[in-house]
Batch of 4 targets.
Target 1
Amino acid sequence: MADVVKIVNNGLAITSALLSGESVVSPKWVGWGVGTTAPVVGNTSLETASAEARTVGTQTQQTTTTTDDTYQVVALITCTGAGKAITEVAVFNHLTNVVMYLRATFSAINVSVGDSIQFTIKSVLDNP
């Protein structure tokens, strides 16, 4: 479970663009890293991205509190380089022409070459 999660400012812009019908790619590419600074709304990239390429996730609509109030992305990333302690994850709207939607940090998950982590990332829309 993530310690700190933020939909960043650019993520809010992606959301409003999608709602207004603009031609925007929905955020479903997931990347990981070893940065430990808590996310803030101004983040535009992972603090310390790892070498593995972003993985396209499966996006679905889920129910957390109210019917269909949650956007969920599930992605599996496999360690292909040297072992590392993964401490951050982010969701982007593209593989290469990238805008960050969300960033999270968490306690280290140690991976070796060939190890994988399946991330389930949920963005719950809430009425305050």
Target 2
Amino acid sequence: MAIAAEVTERTAQPYVAISGTVTMATVGSIADRIPEIFGWLGARGIAPAGPPFLRYNVIDMERQLEIEAGVPVVSAVEGDGHVRAGTLPAGQYAVLVHVGAPPTLPAANAALIDWAAERHLTWDMSRTGAGEEWGCRLEIYLTDPAEQPDVSKWATQLAFRLAD
């Protein structure tokens, strides 16, 4: 099956996020905190620089995931309380835009991983005792649910950093 994936160059991107440890069954509990981040930004008069995302830092499908719900900002800011600040790394990323309901994202992830393997691309990822530790693996939510209630039309960009 052909997919419309590509390799793109991304610049470093400051962001703010809420971190958490979840299981595959409870990933939504972190995604549900994205409005908190928008509230945190709004209270400080900071405009988002793009759509929200989930960043998967450590993946152990059998046990837990260490992920962040984040929002990009124009320039670096100081985090406080439960909101931390960081910078998404620059570099080459394998990218795929998927349109469909959230439960269909695992198949899109698998398709992107297969596409990269066919091209002998290597992920910025290492295997450790905690699981797969990723340099940067993003699900970027391009569709605002308030504007598009039909989940089958939601667009999500997968952006996985490639090894240098």
Target 3
Amino acid sequence: MTYAGLSELRLAYKQAVAEWVEAIRAEEALAVPDHSMVAMDKWDAAHLKEQDAGAKTAESRETYKEALRKIH
């Protein structure tokens, strides 16, 4: 692993975090006073996307950390 490779992994992690934050905000925006089942279904779907984005972020973080450990 080169330092250039580390930079790519760091950028991938930062992008994953940005996508996760976006998913969190999208989920939060759906927590509206509309108490209908349709609104709840949309909110649940957004929550699943948020969980997927969080998992992707965690995976990206671990990949980056493993590469750092190999170099150091």
Target 4
Amino acid sequence: MPAHSIDQTDDIFDSLRQGYPDFDQWWRNKCVREHRPCWAATIENELAGLVVRKEESHAEAQTKYPGPKILKVCTFKVKPKYRGEKLGELLLKQVLWFAQKNAFDLVYLTTFSEQKALISVLLYYGFEKTRVNALGEDIYEKPLCRDRIHPGPGENLFDLARANYPRFVGRSPAEAFCVPIQGEYHNILFPELAKRIQEDLFSLHNSSRERRTPGNTMRRSR
């Protein structure tokens, strides 16, 4: 959705105003007037998570890794009451799928060091802290490559997949497993693959918090 269609008074922006005193002016002058595109996660018609994106050149971004086509995540926010449901991870996946599909060379964002949950997700998906900007924000970058991935001898394929997400090794020595899933559970386990358009990304017949939890909360450690 375009930025101008989002209610600027929504309390999802409260903490951003605390960290950035000029946030409201920036939102009006940059996001709204420039018609910046956004991804939003809604739960029962409430805005629960938001990402605002912008395409930049390397001259604009001043990143460690080169462009020429760079995707900046200008705003990345999940409401505190919905934390723990992996909405941030789901939105980050959307960012990376979009960037890979549209041949971006790099994705980057800035964040303050106290945002531990966000930083943990960024590191998990292969972002690297490259420097600190003049505002004291940490800059995290993830280069995207379109070449085939060639695992080295004994290289951990799971770590390789995380670093290169959304790409992965799909041939030997990687193994594949087929897991049958009943249709009624598919959108619970894989909300990002749901084809239908719906107002509420996670609402189902049973709207309880447990039922709504996105499928990407499932991880198996070895």
